[in-house]
Amino acid sequence: MARWCAKFGEAEAIAMQSAQANTPLHPALLLACGNSLRRDDGVGLKIAEAAEHLFPASRLRIVAATQFTPEMAAELAETELAIFVDASADDEPGSIRVLPVTAHDDNPETHRLDPPALLAMAQSLCGHAPARAFVLTIGAGSFGYGEEISGPLRQAVPRALRLVTNLVAAFAPQA
Question: Which of 82, 128, 129, 136 would bridge 122 by S-S if both were Cys, CB 3.0 to 4.6 A apart?
Answer without folding.
Answer: 129
